[in-house]
Amino acid sequence: MGNLEIRDLNQSFPRDDGSRLIVLDHLNFEVSDKEFVCILGSSGCGKTTLLRLIAGLDAAQAGSIFLDGEEMKGQNQKVGMVFQEYSLFPWRTVIDNIAFGLEMQGMPKDERYRIAGQYLDLINLSPFRNSYPSELSGGMRQRVAVARALALDPVLLLMDEPFGALDAQTRNMLQKELLDIWENTKKTIVFITHSVDEAVFMSDRIIVLSPRPGRICRIFEVPLSRPRDRTSVEFAQVRREVLDLINQNCLIQ
Amino acid sequence: MGTQIRNKGKDWWLGALAIILALVVWEFVAAVIIHYPFILPAPTDVLAAFIDFLDDGTLLLDLEASLTHFAIGLGAALIIGIPFGIMMGWNRRLDAFFDPLIELLRPIPPLAWIPFAIIWFGLTAWSAGFVIFMGAVFPIILNTYHGFRNVPRIFVEAAKMLGCTKSRDLIRYIAFPAALPSVVAGIRIASGVGWMCLVAAELFGVSNYGLGSRLWFSYNLHQMDGVVVYMIILGLIGLAFDMVFRYFINRYFLKWQTGEVA
Q1: How far is residue B183's CA from residue B81's CA, in Å, rounded to a whole number?
Q2: Domains plus CATH for chain A?
Q3: Is A90–B260 a contact, with Cβ atoms under 8 angstroms apart?
Q4: Does any CB of chain B come closer than 8 Å to the CB of residue A128?
Q5: Residues B17 and B115 in one domain
């Protein structure tokens, strides 16, 4: 299961003049099991803050987060995360990066290599098993980061603009690959992006955040079946709808 | 960069030529112009002295004594310096606690400790070791500290998400490997400083044996060729340390850095 529930989440940071900058303002939403949800918003709207709260890397000022009915405090093994920056450990080979979480659980070497090897196959990077991250391209590094997060078999996978730093072609390729992985492993995925195109291509639902303070401006269902065609009229229609909303600063409801 | 490496490999003989030329000029100046071994012994005199020292066994005894001093000093500096650097780099309060003390002790030149080294440890290997320790420990502490302080936050957070949450595990699996290049740089600096301190410590009579003390002893006997023998040996051993150290570290511990543009 991977049912995520966000209740009345608030976050603010102290400013130099003593007042507080409200980043997230009474956020409420739910993500159901095996759903692929994109959180879309311009930079500074608190997307990353939200994801860090769900991950347990920061503590919320008020509100609570439930996973399958249980309130989450701190990091949780059921939650995996793929970061925006390259986060692979450069001193570990690809296979040892993927096996890291299993190693921390105290799993014997043979077994963790066996499991890590399966995820390495899943991302089609088996020939790079013993390479160091510095020998991989940016796209490959993010694929390994996905495999590393999946190796612990989390129910919820958080992704913070994982393809943001990649060129358009690699990005499109990895989007397709991620959808395949999602089909195969059926995780709940919360994916952060500022690209409307990416959100429409990937997700079941799109949660659009308005900037400063971060509020939910609207939640779109994407009515398209997969695989989606970026060039189709229906695709363009959904895109236009989302873009219009963002361009008008969430003023149309 | 590729062409640079290739050129360096192909043009090694240029460097060798320079050394040979220097030896020839040295021999000529010493034997023909100055002609007074006390002012400048010729390479051939030095070679003869070297063979003498080797034959009667003094060179080996001195080498053994100096390496013992160095091992004591650098060993103690590693055992004490690395944990201190880790503690201070990882924990802000320990940093605030120890930092002023260390900053007060650090500027004292290691050689200023020689009187106390002799009083506390007598004329033993330990007193020379102590002076070397005082020279080597601070570069190790400081570099380890900076390495730990600059561990990218993203690595720590990624590790936490993967179930590595205890401080001890984070230090062992994340911070230490991430800081290793900096720690290693500290050890290299420390071994250089330690080697300098070694000569000075022995020179001031902290020890009766050793490369530095023999150098001084030869000077007192006005055997300047002997002085040059020990100067060259000191230089070559310092160089050998550095090369062996770099080779091992790069090969076994910092393999992952190859190809990284840093």
Answers
A1: 10
A2: 1-78+155-253 (3.40.50.300), 88-153 (no CATH)
A3: yes
A4: no
A5: no
Instruction: Quote the CA–CA distance of A45 and A119 in Å, as a whole number.
Output: 34
Least CB–CB distance from B259: residue in A55, A85, A135: A135
Asked if B70 and B2 sit in the same domain, the reply is: no
Residue of A nearest to B157 (CA): A57
**Interchain pair B161, A55: CB under 8 A:** yes
Question: Which regions of chain A are under pLDDT 50?
Answer: 252-253
ipTM of the modeled complex: 0.91
Q: Do A149 and B157 touch (CB under 8 A)?
A: no
Please tell me the distance from the alpha carbon of residue B175 to that of residue B153, in angstroms, as a whole number: 10
The answer to whether the Cβ–Cβ distance between A152 and B159 falls below 8 Å is no
Residues 63-122 of chain A with CB under 8 A from chain B are 74-75, 77, 79-81, 83, 85-87, 89-92, 100-101, 104-105
Phi, psi of A64 (to 5 degrees): -145, 160
Per CB-CB distance under 8 Å, the chain A contacts of B161 are: 55, 57, 75, 79-81, 149
For A98-214, where are the E strands, in sequence order?
156-160, 188-193, 205-210
Residue B18 sits in which domain range?
A: 1-35
**What region, left, alpha or beta, does residue B62 occupy, with left being phi > 0 and alpha being psi -120 to 50 degrees?**
alpha
Q: What are the pLDDT digits (tens) for A185-234?
A: 889 999 999 899 999 999 999 999 887 788 888 888 888 888 898 889 99
H or E element in which residue B22 lies: helix B12-28
Residue A138 structure tokens: 């940016």
How is chain A split among helix, strand and coil, in percent rounded to 5?
A: 35, 25, 40
**Helices and strands in chain B: count of H runs, count of E runs:** 12, 0
